[in-house]
Amino acid sequence: QSVAVLGAPFSRGQKRGGVEHGPKVIRDAGLIDRLSGLDYSIHDFGDLNFHYIEKDEPYMDVKFPRTVGAANKMVSGAVSRAVGAGHTLVMLGGDHSLAIGSVAGHAQQCPDLCLIWVDAHADINTPMSSPSGNLHGQPVAFMLKELQDKMPDIPGFSWTKPFLTSRDLVYIGLRDIDPGEHHILKDLGIQYFTMRDVDRLGIQRVMEVALDHLLSRKQRPIHLSFDVDAFDPSLAPATGTPVNGGLTYREGIYITEEIHNTGLLSVMDLVEVNPTLGANPEAVQATALLAVDVIASSLGQTREGARASIDQNP
Ligand SMILES: N/C(=N\O)NCCC[NH3+]
Ligand SMILES: [Mn+2]
Ligand SMILES: [Mn+2]
Questions:
Q1: Is a pLDDT exceeding 90 seen at residue 39?
Q2: Residue 273: beta bridge partners?
Q3: Radius of gyration for the alpha carbons in the chain, expressed in angstroms and rounded
Q4: Which ipTM was obtained for this model?
Q5: CB distance 175 to 131 below 8 Å
Q6: DSSP symbol at 20
Q7: How high is the pLDDT of residue 7?
Q8: How far does residue 45's CA lie from ligand 1's centre (Å)?
Q9: pTM for the full model?
Q10: 241 lines ligand 1 (CB under 6 A)
Q11: Cα(210)–Cα(115) distance, integer angstroms
Q12: pLDDT of 312 over the 90 cut
């Protein structure tokens, strides 16, 4: 089993500077060492080199469309190549608009993939419904076949084509849903678990129902798109849109343990770590370390430890 790590230092899906430094702080928090302790071969592909297109005027209020579109075309190619080469891929963001390329590239290799979106937000605004025009609040709308009549031809996105149907997607951690998004979630009958559902059912039942919804008919590759703001801001303060009442550490780790245990994880995104938004260095480090824990747990690090290989002295 081989794992590839790809940094995507990109911020133009939203307005706050700093999230482009996410890959660096996650690596500096020891990601590669932590993954090397698991039984994989690790390949660090380094960071993609994005070009910010000058004179990238808004289109129907959508901000930086050409820059975000070009960045995601590059991400899509890189993810497709990595999955095609047999790697389990970890993409480090960068803002959540990067999922447009990450999931599309994955779907190129695995058209039957299913998507687990762990986030305080649904990120399913269309350009018309988006209150801000920031593309990191719209990535899922680009993926769903059912929304294509609602999607205009945005400059920079002519390469995209929808590949997902609403039953292939499950949300966990939602607690700040825009009105237009609520309408879409209900209209399309998308399966989602808000933080109220987590409180009512407990995370064990949420995972049981979520994985049954996605995998009971047929086992298929999983794309996990994990926005660090799914966690409570007390745990992940260095992020752009913190929302109170998020996942506990144990709930977040349980989610990733259960996903690992399916044996079906193929690509994961870890996005929205913004080291310039922590109140102090300790807050930034806590957020970066949490990102490393989530990734390591998704890839098989367990709380019960693992058997030492027999040639290790005890
Ligand atoms: N972190 C964010 N998405 O996950 N921000 C944008 C969402 C606004 N509705
Ligand atoms: Mn998000
Ligand atoms: Mn979010």
A1: no
A2: 239
A3: 18
A4: 0.98
A5: no
A6: G
A7: 98
A8: 27
A9: 0.97
A10: yes
A11: 11
A12: no
